[in-house]
Write a sequence for this structure.
């Protein structure tokens, strides 16, 4: 293999305008260029401490140039000025990291919940997604979203079909993705009025018709079956306390699946690829979004330390997930030879707490083995790298606000939600406090979040955002409130 080094170690550090300005402010008169240079030690002292890893070209570059390698180089060049602070006009902390612009992001999100502008009519079938993305992101930023309860309830009631599930809009067929988004949005606003919108019996019948003979779920009756279906169905079933027995007149029942979770873990396991990642369906390319869906689904079927190692090759999965984090960018890519994107802060970043729990098992504070202790304390990815990418590269810097894929892209509700979810999981440590009893599918494990404290914390403490359940991606207390409400329903 021919490799070349791209890094020029003798290259001088660049003085940014804000550093020269800071020096000028310190002195009575603006410094001349020679004064600026003779004051080098002073400048170095005030220069933000950014590890070279995040400010330099990669040390090793493959000589084979392809469209992919050119795009990768373009992305590095696009991110470096943001990672070095150059693009933040002196508004960085001592680590070269800017603040989280909460106010603007909150404003952006409220706007997303308004009426869609006419040019967005094509996005109509994804309206429930906009509700989920915006409400989840607002919640992470500490906003009370119950003010949206009445409007949400009125808006989603007509998109529920009598045959079960929710479409994207009035008169549209029920789809697992829009149903998942609608259910989560309802749980986010919370309250009995929201909980009772869902027709759970019809939902159960519809889910039974989506369940396939091979164990998986179709997204829509007669439509595609993939790992999104496995995750969305398990979330809906377990959050709403849908009875697990399959309907005796369903094809799944005839195929021997007497319950909705039967054969699902095996089906998800078949989606792990030779690379170690997880694909949408068996036999195609691994992608980060599906890795999260797979691990989330498995963590619902049973406690993660039992179900994830049961269906997944852990070393290969961990190797693949680790390869998703890039330097200097610090963010995650979704697949091999592709680019970092802020949304993978969640799809890939959100896999880590589940992997960590799978490795550590429940930690109730009792004596731990050496392996367990190592898994308890270590971090499986560079949290600071991800936090740098998010705060430096993913924030829209105009009045628009919102978070984005990368600096050359516009912010949107999808990225705002998943970038913030990723930020939250990088800032916290989740522990499985107590696992459900063995063999109780859909049962609740006890999770606990603690602020993750690094030796060197690169973000301002004020910018630590809220937490979100590692499996359901809504706050833990909203998950528990839903469980409590539906537990009182018994059957339907
Ligand atoms: C590729 O896009 C993206 C995918 C193949 C996955 C999309 C799926 C999700 C975002 C998640 C679905 C989850 C649920 C719960 C419904 P791309 O080729 O534009 O991006 P890439 O270059 O980063 O792969
Ligand atoms: K992408």
């Amino acid at each position: 293999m021919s490799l070349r080094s791209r890094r020029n170690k003798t290259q001088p550090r660049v003085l940014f305008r804000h550093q020269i300005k800071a020096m000028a402010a310190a002195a009575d008169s603006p410094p001349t260029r020679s004064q600026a240079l003779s004051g080098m030690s002073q400048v170095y002292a005030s220069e933000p401490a950014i590890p070279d890893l995040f400010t330099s070209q990669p040390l090793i570059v493959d000589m084979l140039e392809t469209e992919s390698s050119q795009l990768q180089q373009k992305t590095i060049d696009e991110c470096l000025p943001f990672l070095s602070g150059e693009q933040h006009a002196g508004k960085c902390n001592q680590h070269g990291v800017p603040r989280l612009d909460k106010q603007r992001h909150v404003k952006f999100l409220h706007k997303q919940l308004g009426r869609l502008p006419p040019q967005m009519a094509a996005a109509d079938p994804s309206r429930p997604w906009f509700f989920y993305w915006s409400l989840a992101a607002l919640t992470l930023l500490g906003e009370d979203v119950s003010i949206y309860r009445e409007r949400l309830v009125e808006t989603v009631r007509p998109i529920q079909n009598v045959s079960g599930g929710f479409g994207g809009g009035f008169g549209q067929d029920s789809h697992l993705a829009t149903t998942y988004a609608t259910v989560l949005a309802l749980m986010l606003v919370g309250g009995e009025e929201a909980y009772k919108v869902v027709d759970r019996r019809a939902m159960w019948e519809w889910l039974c018709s989506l369940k396939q003979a091979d164990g998986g779920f179709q997204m829509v009756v007669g439509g595609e079956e993939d790992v999104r279906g496995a995750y969305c169905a398990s979330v809906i079933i377990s959050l709403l306390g849908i009875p697990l027995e399959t309907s005796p007149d369903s094809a799944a029942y005839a195929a021997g699946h007497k319950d909705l979770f039967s054969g699902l873990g095996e089906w998800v396991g078949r989606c792990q690829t030779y690379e170690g990642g997880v694909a949408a369906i068996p036999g195609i390319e691994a992608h980060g979004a599906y890795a999260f869906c797979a691990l989330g689904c498995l963590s619902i079927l049973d406690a993660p330390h039992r179900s994830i190692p049961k269906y997944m090759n852990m070393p290969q999965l961990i190797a693949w997930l680790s390869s998703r984090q890039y330097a200097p960018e610090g963010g995650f890519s979704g697949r091999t030879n592709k680019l970092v994107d802020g949304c993978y802060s969640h799809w890939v970043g959100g896999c880590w707490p589940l992997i960590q729990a799978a490795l550590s098992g429940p930690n109730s504070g009792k004596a731990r083995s050496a392996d367990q202790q190592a898994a308890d304390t270590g971090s499986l990815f560079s949290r600071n790298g991800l936090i740098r990418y998010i705060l430096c590269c993913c924030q829209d810097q105009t009045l628009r606000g919102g978070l984005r894929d990368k600096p050359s892209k516009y912010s949107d509700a999808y990225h705002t939600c998943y970038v913030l979810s990723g930020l939250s999981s990088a800032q916290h440590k989740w522990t499985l406090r107590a696992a459900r009893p063995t063999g109780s599918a859909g049962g609740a494990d006890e999770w606990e979040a603690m602020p993750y404290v690094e030796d060197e914390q690169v973000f301002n403490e004020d910018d630590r955002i809220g937490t979100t359940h590692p499996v359901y991606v809504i706050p833990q207390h909203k998950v528990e409130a839903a469980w409590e409400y539906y537990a009182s329903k018994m059957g339907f």
Notes: The longest strand covers residues 428-434.
